[in-house]
Amino acid sequence: MLVAEGSPIVLKIIVSGQVDAIVGVACLNVLEKAIDKILLAGIPCMAVPLLSSDLGNTAVDEDWVAEMIRIQRQSQQVRTQSYVHLMRAAAGMFERPELERLAPRTRGNANLAELNGQGVSGLDPLAGTEAIAYDFLAKGGKHSRPFITLAVFDALTGGRGTSGEGARHLVALPDAVKRTALSIETFHKASLVHDDIEDDDGFRYGDTTVHRRWGIPTAINVGDYLIGLGYRLVSREAAQLTPGVAADILDRLADAHMKLSEGQGAELLWRDQTNKRLASIDALKIYGLKTAPAFAAALYAGARLAGPVEKYAEPLAQFARHLGIAFQILNDLGDWQADGHNKLASGGDVLGGRPTVLWALALESLGEAERKELEALVAQAPTATTLQRVQQIYQTAGVFEKAARLVDKYQQRAEPWRRESSPMSCGDCYTI
Predict the structure, then answer these.
(1) Which of 108, 110, 352, 355 has the most other CB atoms within 10 Å of its CB?
(2) What average pLDDT does the segment 156-167 reach?
(3) Cα 131 from Cα 127, distance rounded (Å)
């Protein structure tokens, strides 16, 4: 497969199993970042750099690209370990046949897409909530959290899921493990439904948000339903998991749920204040509550499914904290890159008045006059001109580069083998 710079479909295609190798065409600095990630997934890849870093005035050696495309794959005796099988296993749980098997419906088996435009009006009223919830659960997402659960469980039970026979091995995963991983995503999807209501976002996964399509009361109810489904997926596996394991996982899920609510509450309270000053350390604390706990629950669940977890508990919590913060900063950066995968619009966080580390970094880097201008801009009704000016101010303050460096720092903190060579300053650390 040939992939040009900025392609949003690479991950989806890798997970779907429709690609055996990738030829990347992009600026050299982009290739340096992207190729390592593809190789970590165990996908063979080659790259051709553009002849200039100026995307508006560059070219590519087409003969070189063609030559790479024609290279025949050679059989190898040693096979690279790959997470692709685990990524595919996580994504496969949300394909309709497997989803319906792992989480059988109680009100029928209707798919909204098959109701010939009638929507929920074509259903028994009692089946409407379930139908909308399952439709959203199966729609979109990278499935990062269930992947983490499966990956940790696999790592602590032999690591065969990353071997050359990983696909065959993962077919035999116990349903209790799959349902626990599925529950992690169910909680995440519930939080997205509620988050979209609170932010009044119009799009999710490239489609109309649940509350915009079905109304706010119905959307709140659907989110609540998904929370209940998540707990039930684990509680009803108590016999298979043993009551102690199920209780430990449910306790960790409940803890994550409460911390997420605290983080979201802090965000909402800040959003509604007239004083929009924010320190980057405070933004990171919100991230640590709002985003990190879901990763902590996913990691813990995978480890607890594999056996006793005492010696892993603190390292996993530390890893989740740094991973969650880095993930949220990347999400903030992605908010400035409109795409067809998620919300379709750029700059929604800043214009929606949400506290982000980008906003905090801007306030910390700008002079008083520019800070006042930035605050005045977001106080106005959002327009394309407003958005463009905010982006210019962010660029002047070097916000995007500083945020990218923060992502690198938190990655280093998450990876113990890199901490000694790249320590963070005390200002980047905190305790939740």
Answers:
(1) 355
(2) 90
(3) 6
